[in-house]
Write a structure and sequence with these properties.
The protein is α+β, with helices and mostly antiparallel strands. It has one domain: Ribonuclease Z/Hydroxyacylglutathione hydrolase-like (Metallo-beta-lactamase, Chain A, 4-Layer Sandwich), CATH 3.60.15. It is built from 8 helices and 19 strands.
Length: about 325
């Protein structure tokens, strides 16, 4: 795996000038085998982990682990999305929060522009799940942000979030999630641009989905393989790195099935630690790519080193 910041290392899809003030919109480029992956920042949001968000934690453990990580609640959670190209298909994994999480998020469009990619060039959007911080960027002012894209999502996920009976009975946070899911998906459903798949699915050579249910009924991971290298896109297996690597049994209130989410996370952590491949995470600090290591009875996050190996531009003129 190598990382780079050269303009040639990203799907171009037609260059677009960045806005003058993109409010820290950003991107980072990494190479997996022969495939260039661009991490796109959708921003960050303050996540209050001190008032019931984390489940199953031992008394005092959350405060202790946050202190050890030089953090305190609310923590700054990243919203990361991932872009790459295989053959003529320009693929985006998750779309960020859109307008759902306030002014410090919703920067995906600016980050795409900074990376030189037009939203109209995206051919495929793959959702790890339909929570509003992953699907909210599908729409801008109620219209399709990616008008040429097919949206791919697990059938279980689609069935759950579009179930009107479940939505009518939901309350509180879950009710807002159902409403946001409908708002994000409906324009693509109306246009015939949603394609559901069931469980383990291969899309093109070197790119596939595998079930990782629990956080939501149809939460999936996506695997990119090229020239013997692997990058597994984890979606929401980890929300609070300072806590959940040390204690994977800690769930979050966002989990639809917390017990299953815990088992899924434990299995994924063990597999990644044993396999040594790279993982990409949506909410771990940007750019969210790294390895999983073992630490006694727990795990540790080993982010990729920052690399900027693009050739410097030679100044012209006096």
């Amino acid at each position: 795996m190598s990382a780079c910041a050269s303009d040639a290392a990203t799907p171009r899809g037609g260059a677009s000038a960045a806005t003058a003030d993109a409010s820290q919109a950003g991107f980072y480029r990494a190479r997996i085998g022969a495939v260039d992956v661009t991490v796109l920042s959708d921003g960050t949001v303050g996540l209050d982990v001190a008032n019931g968000l984390l489940l199953n934690a031992k008394p005092g453990a959350v405060d202790h682990l946050l202190t050890e990580a030089f953090q305190k609640s609310p923590i700054d959670a990243s919203f990361n999305a991932f872009l790459f190209q295989i053959d003529q298909r320009i693929m985006l994994i998750d779309t960020g929060a859109g307008a759902n999480f306030g002014p410090t998020a919703g920067k995906l469009g600016d980050s795409l522009a900074r990376a030189g990619v037009r939203a109209e060039a995206i051919t495929d959007v793959f959702l790890t799940h339909v929570h509003p911080d992953h699907s909210g960027g599908l729409v801008v002012d109620g219209k399709r942000a990616f008008p040429q894209a097919t949206v791919h999502v697990d059938q279980k996920e689609l069935d759950y979030w579009l179930d009107k009976d479940l939505a009518s009975k939901a309350t509180g946070m879950q009710a807002t999630f159902f409403a946001a899911a409908s708002a994000s998906l409906q324009p693509y459903l109306d246009a015939g641009q949603v394609k559901a798949f069931s469980g383990a699915t291969a899309f093109v050579q070197g790119f596939s989905a595998t079930p990782a249910y629990g956080h939501t009924p149809g939460h999936v991971l996506y695997l990119l393989e090229s020239n013997g290298e692997k990058l597994l896109f984890w979606g929401d297996l980890i929300h609070v790195a300072a806590v959940q690597f040390d204690d994977p049994s800690v769930a979050v209130a966002f989990d639809v099935d917390p017990a299953l989410a815990v088992e899924t996370r434990k299995s994924a952590l063990a597999n990644a630690a044993d396999g040594g491949y790279l993982v990409a995470q949506n909410h771990v600090a940007f750019p969210g790519i790294g390895h999983i290591g073992r630490a006694a009875q727990a795990y540790r996050w080993v982010p990729i080193p920052y690399v900027n190996d693009s050739a410097a531009k030679t100044p012209s003129g006096p």
